[in-house]
Each structure stands twice: as structure tokens, then as C-alpha cells.
Amino acid sequence: MPLIHLRKREETPGNPGYFEEQMFCRLQYIRTEQQVALFLTSFFFVQMMKFAWDNYKLYALGKNELRPLTKNGHIGNMFGGLRGATVIDALDTLYIMELEEEFQEAKKWVEKSFDLNVNGEASLFEVNIRYVGGLLAAYYLTGEEMFKSKALELGEKLLPAFNTPTGIPRGVINLGSGMSWSWGWASAGSSILAEFGTLHLEFLHLTELSGNPVFTEKVMNIRKVLNRIEKPQGLYPNFLSPVTGNWVQHHVSIGGLGDSFYEYLIKSWLMSDKRDAEAKKMYDDALEAIEKHLVKKSAGGLTYIAEWRGGILDHKMGHLACFSGGMIALGAEHAGGEQKQQHMDLAAEITHTCHESYSRSDTKLGPEAFRFDSGTEATATRLSERYYILRPEVVESYLYMWRLTHDPKYRQWGWEVVQALEKHCRVEAGYSGIRDVYTTTPNHDNMQQSFFLAETLKYLYLLFCEDDVLSLEDWVFNTEAHPLPVNHTNFKAKASVH
Ligand code: DMJ
Questions:
Q1: Which of 118, 167, 318, 396 has the fewest Cβ atoms within 10 Å of its own Cβ atom?
Q2: pLDDT tens digit sequence for 417-450
Q3: In total, how many domains does the chain have?
Q4: Residues in a beta bridge with 309
């Protein structure tokens, strides 16, 4: 019996008394010792979330992130004047965890203080995955129109970024003037694969909710450009010119700069209720090329995905690349014949390697990047790669692996992360990243990232919930872990997918 309900959209209206009803349902279904243990574990995650939220609210409400050591807020320069990244990122986690009072506080802030009339340079990608994704998920979970209208208003503001000769958007946009640029650090004015390739899920929902086909047209055009262009050995490089539509550099990575592009291919197919065959084919082809050219085994028997620089392999995996265990498992579920087992094995091996990167450190948290060369196995070799900023990718893979195999080791591994977070990242006023996972002497970075509330805590909580809480049949998680419903009823946006 499910511990909590949160299965289908229709069952989660924002009706008064909803939270009380949920708590009643929870207690009513507890029958076995295992269920008592699960209930207590999830209660622990709820307390972690409450601690993270309460401190943000106390010291930084309305800023983008909390600085938990200095007890103040951080604004940063990623969101172009938008504020409250932690509020928007936390909304659905608070709701799912049934933290009613805290959810109402967050909702009130969005209603009264979230200002969309801002002027400043924002990352198209970050605004989409955190703000648009967060608002959409809040709308789908609660049915509250306010979230929907803010998501649509913000979506409209992102459209000018697509005004380029190819329709491939630039990475930076001024939300006030609509002017857009490429990142200064991106070679030759290029756009980044993981950025323009991580809009599809949210934009299809924007069309669905507004009836305006423009959002779907923009992302379908990106797909067209990507399908037309020749790919070196079937691989997708990370840098593409929005002017010529050609690759600018041959750097391929399943970690940073490439990562969520692959994730959105398989999830586009799943979100379309498996109708978007083009996305599935692109995913299958990309994974085949990755398996052929990038998947390697270390001398010590650890499977990893290397990076590729114009044909030369860099034997390194970033923490970001650790999401791929979960993604490959999700795709394997739907692969045919021998491939199903082969991909499931690959997913399990990569997740194991990422777990090793955690268990080989003194803090039991993983570094930003780890290497497999000169006798090194799954450990960071450079000082600059030893930090952990509360990232979710490893626990994200534990969640998918747990849901798809029910091997208890994934829950055990998740619990190890919780213990390490409590020991090394919890400070007086929230959770902080650490600068070196290989020392237990505290060296905090004074930042509680918004994705800690959106993703890390949500994935950990779901890891200990029953499978029908946000089931993988009914929901896909965007790359910031915001749940979006699968289109079981063929929404209008799909017209152009066929
Ligand atoms: C998040 O914002 C998203 O998961 C994104 O896809 C990658 N980076 C962070 C978390 O590490």
C-alpha cells in the first residue's frame, strides 16, 4: 500500500484540506515494520528540507540562494535580475513532502513578490530549468493558475533568444530588452549543446498550456538543425554556431556542456507517451556512439564515460556525468532484446563507479571530477576538482536504479549520502558545499545551492517512498528534478512532433 498519494495529476488538486487528507492516508496504510522504517526515513528528509528552507526564509528570502555561514543572501548573475531561485526551486519539493506551512510561505512570495519585469543578463538554460520548470511543476501538482500564468509570462520573455540565423538560441538573454548574446567563454560565439538542448520538455508544456504553438516550433527547429548536421563518429560536440549551424569545436562530453541534451531526448520520448519516435531514435543513435567511443573500463574494472576532444580521450568523469546511470537505466527499460540487459548493466556499472567516487573520499561525498589515469581510479587528481557543491546527480541515479531494479543497495547508498551531508555539510544555518571532499576538516563554501532543495533532497526523499509517488509512468523530471506530467492524452503540442 502506498505511504502517500501523489500519483496522477487529477488526484492532486490544490483543494483545501489536501495536506491533512494526505497525512491521514499515510498513517492509515502503515502496516509493516518496513513501512514504519520508511515513514521514519522520509520524515528525516522532511526535516532536512525544513531546515534548509527555514534558514533560507530567515536569512535570504527573496535572494537567489542562502549563504549559510554568513547568514545572508546571494544573488549572483545567472538569472538576469530574477530573484527567489530557491523559492521557485523548492516549491514542488515542499509540496511533495507535505510541508504545508512552508509551501504556503513560498507560494505567497511568488504571488506577491516575484517580479518578472527585470532587466539583466540571464542564462536562458538556467531560467528555463529552474524557473519555468519549477513554476510548471508547481502548477501541475497544485492546479493553481497563478503558477501557470507566471510560467507562461516568463516563457514569452525567453523567445527573443531564438532570433538567430539558424534559430539556435544564444545562451544569454536580457529579459527586459530581449537582446541576446553568446557566453563570453564559449568559443567563437557558439551556443552550448546542453543549453539549447535542454528546453524541449518545458517548451512543449508551455505550448500545451497556452495554446501557442511558437514554443514547440522553436524547439522542433533546434531538433531539425541537429538532425541535418553531420556528426563526427555519430557524436554530438558541445559547441554549435547559432549563425552558421556548424560545430565550432569537437569536444564531446556526457558531463558538463553536453549532459542534459541526451537526458531530454529520452525524456521527450517518454513525455510524449512514447509517440515521439524521432527523439527516441536520436537518443538510441547517440547512446550507440557513446558506447562505441566513450565508454571505457579502468584497470581496476570500473566502467566510466570519458570525454572526447577531437578524437583524443580525456579519461575523466565529472560529477555532472553521474546522472547518466539513471538516464541509461530509464532508456534500457524500453530497449528491445539483448540491449535491454546490456544497457541495464551499463547503467548499474556507471552508478557503481559514481558510488566509488564517493566511497573513496574521506567525507564519503564525491568530487566535482574524478579521473582514471596514471594509476588513478575514480578520484580527483587536481586540487581544483576536489569540491562538492551539494549536487544531485549521484543520488538521482540511485533513485532511478532503485525504482527500476529494487536492489536495496541503492537505498543504502542514498543513506550513506544523507549521513555524509549531515556530518560535513550541515552548518548552523543551513547546508553548505565543501571545498575538499578528501579532508574532514571543515572547509565550507558558504553556499546552499537552490538545486539542493529542488533535486538532491527530492531525489533522496523519493528513493525512500513507494514507486507510485510521482511514478515514472506518469511523470518525467526535468533536469532540475521538477516533475512534468506524461502526455497520456495526446496534448496539442504533439501535432508537430509526429
Ligand atoms: C542543476 O541545475 C541541474 O541538474 C543541471 O542539469 C546541472 N547542474 C545542476 C546540478 O548539479
A1: 118
A2: 999 999 999 999 999 999 999 999 989 999 999 9
A3: 1
A4: 251, 312
Burial 323-338 (b: 16+ CB within 10 A, else e): bbbbbbbbbbbbbeee
Provide the residue count of the chain. 498
Catalytic residues: 126, 259, 368, 393
Reduced to 3 states, what is the DSSP secondary structure of residue 182? coil
Atom of ligand 1 nearest to the CA of 198: 6
Q: In 10 A of CB 28, how many CB atoms?
A: 10
CA of 451 to the centre of ligand 1 (A): 7
Residue with cell 541526451: 262
In the block, residue with C-alpha cell 558531463: 255
For residue 65, give the H/E element and its range: strand 65-67
Span from the CA of 413 to the centroid of ligand 1 (angstroms): 20
**What digits encode the pLDDT tens for the residues 87-120?**
999 999 999 999 999 999 999 999 999 999 999 9
Residues with CB under 6 A from ligand 1: 260, 320, 391-392, 451, 455, 479-480
Distance from Cα 481 to the centre of ligand 1, integer Å: 9
Residue 497 lies in a domain: no
Domain that holds residue 218: 31-484
121 located within any domain? yes
Cα 414 to Cα 111: distance, rounded to the nearest angstrom? 35
- Cα 149 to Cα 136: distance, rounded to the nearest angstrom: 9
CB atoms within 10 A of CB 278: 18
Which DSSP string corresponds to 472-489? TTTEEE-TTS-EEE--TT
Return the ligand 1 atom nearest residue 389 CA. 11
Rounded to the nearest angstrom, the gap between the alpha carbon of residue 197 and the centroid of all alpha carbons in its chain is 13
* Residue 251: inside a domain: yes
440 is in an annotated binding site: no
Which CATH number does the domain housing residue 244 bear? 1.50.10.10
Which ligand 1 atom sits closest to the C-alpha of 320?
A: 11
Residues 131, 134, 140, 143: what is their CA dihedral angle, to the nearest 10 degrees? -70
Strands (E), 178-278: 180-181, 191-192, 239-240, 247-249, 251-252
Closest by Cα among 46, 110, 182, 179 to 462: 46
Residue 339 lies in a domain: yes
List the grid coordinates of 183.
Answer: 557566453
Q: Are 209 and 152 in contact (CB under 8 A)?
A: yes
